[in-house]
Amino acid sequence: MRFFKTAALTAMLGLIATTGVAQEVTLRFQHFVSPNSANPKYFLAPWVEKVEAESNGRIKIEIYPFMQLGGKATAQYDLIRDGVIDGGWVIPGYTPGRFPEAEALELPFMVTKSAEDASRAAWAFTQKHLMDDFADVHLIAAHMHGPGIIHKTGGAIQDLSDFAGLKLRGPSRAATLLLDKLGAEPIGLPVPQFPEALSKGVVDGGVITWEMSPSLKLDELTDSHTDVAGDKSLYNLYFIWAMNKDSYAALPDDLKAVIDANSGLETSAMAGRAHDTGDRDGRALMQEAGNEIATLSEAETARIVALGDAVTEEWIADMTQRGLNAAQLVDDARATVQAARSSGTDG
Fold first, then answer.
1. What is the DSSP string of 177-201?
2. SS3 at position 19
3. Which of 36, 44, 255, 330 lies at 20 to 30 Å from 19 by C-alpha?
4. CA gap 99, 105 in Å, rounded
5. φ, ψ for residue 167 (rounded to 5)?
């Protein structure tokens, strides 16, 4: 009798062990920047730690910076969709025209300088307009970074005439359209290519956030950093954090629930807060390096806002011709930004 009890117990323990092994999973996510930049440091690392803890260690997430698993930053969405990686950080704007509705959030002076508020708005806008666009991946978060700053060699921008002829890096279609209106020569470049372009003199500067400045060595490669007046961002960039659909579907229900609990509005807001923290760090470092920190006057900012409004109107006309209800998209983007700004809790 003792033999049969022992055998039964052994079989049961074996089944539990086998089940446990079957339910353990390692997911490989990648991004395209330094692990010391704000999003990986203040969002991705804490997010991974939280997911792993809440799964009791049954989910392990490996994060690979600098596209170490292969491919280019511009192909990140396809790498996730095709299952080359289990998940990653995507800038839809790196493929202009592919996700046109998302561009509404990137239009000049659309969002506030609070990345957290802007990210709450991004999640709400995504739920209303973009889920069909991202139907072939499993969406975890949608967010914005902090205010875009003009970083350049030489002195800071003082007025519109200072833009004339400058070769400036832009990350998205909306940003390059604005730079063109300002009289600069816009050059579209993903983040990883920006420092080399600066060091070789291919560009005179570019627009990017404070938080990315240290990891790109902009304290060494540029001399000045200029923001616009007011509480609206010169430009912004829209991001998603997403999983391969099959990788998500293969998880047992209780592990899916862990991913779900770490997705959505509050996860998007968490990503935004990471950028706000990084912006404070980055600005301080540029200042400590002795670089010139400047803010355009309200009068000059108003002139840029007018040019930004022209970009928006042209975008509406272009997208309307392509069959989108572009005016409604812009209205809805503004409404979600205002709602996030007013409540701080609702997108």
1. HHHHHTT-EEEE--GGGHHHHHHTT
2. helix
3. 44
4. 12
5. -90, 110
Q: How many degrees, rounded to 5, is the angle at CA 29 between CA 26 and CA 30?
A: 150
pLDDT in tens, 33-64: 999 999 999 999 999 999 999 999 999 999 99
Task: Write out pLDDT tens, residues 125-165.
Answer: 999 999 999 999 999 999 999 999 999 999 999 999 999 99
pLDDT at 183: 97
Q: Rounded to an integer, what is the distance from CA 335 to the centroid of its chain?
A: 21
CB 180 within 8 A of CB 186: yes
Q: What pLDDT is recorded for position 3?
A: 37
d(CA 254, CA 263): 15
> Residue 279: what residue type?
D
The answer for residues whose C-beta is within 8 angstroms of residue 180's C-beta and 6 or more apart is 186
* β-bridge partners, 112: 232
